[in-house]
Amino acid sequence: MISESISDPSAVTFHFNGDEIKAQDGQSVAAALLNVGARITRITRIHSQPRGVFCGIGICFDCLVVIDGVPNQRACLTDVRQGMKVEIQDGVGDYAGDSQP
Ligand code: FES
Predict the structure, then answer these.
(1) What is the CA radius of gyration of the chain?
(2) Domain coordinates of the chain in residue numbers?
(3) Residues enclosing ligand 1, CB less than 6 A?
(4) pLDDT by residue (tens digit) across 2-20?
(5) Ligand 1 probe mutation, 57, 67, 78, most atoms within 8 A of CB
(6) What angle do CA 50, 30, 40 make, to 5 degrees?
(7) What pLDDT is recorded for position 1?
């Protein structure tokens, strides 16, 4: 039964734009974000439009986020990890400490 498999939703805690989010171990970042109503994962480079999870299978790249300072991570293909820091990606994203455009 599905509800039995998610009986401990507090198994993993991570941060999304500074907010603490609880998720189940093995859940994708995308699923965890959708579960709490967070729909925006990135802002487009040219027109600054919001994007979020679309295909859910790693094809569209609309779910790109910055994870622990590394941009261009697909939220739908990345499992949550205890303590990870996920941020909305603005444009192409900058690597932590990288001053290159
Ligand atoms: S939602 Fe399409 S690649 Fe993640």
Answers:
(1) 14
(2) 2-90
(3) 53-56, 58-63, 74, 76
(4) 445 555 755 899 999 999 9
(5) 57
(6) 15
(7) 42
Atom of ligand 1 nearest to the CA of 55: 2
The residue with tokens 């990606």 is 89
User: Ligand 1: which of 33, 34, 51, 55 to mutate, most ligand atoms within 8 Å of CB?
Assistant: 55
Enter the pTM of the model: 0.86
* 16 class by beta-carbon count within 10 Å (0-12 exposed, 13-18 middle, 19+ buried): buried
Architecture of domain 2-90: Roll (3.10)
- Report which ligand 1 atom has the smallest distance to the Cα of 76: 4
Closest to 73 (Cα-Cα) out of 64, 83, 62: 64
Q: Which atom of ligand 1 is nearest to the CA of 58?
A: 3
Low-confidence ranges of the chain (pLDDT < 50): 1-3, 101
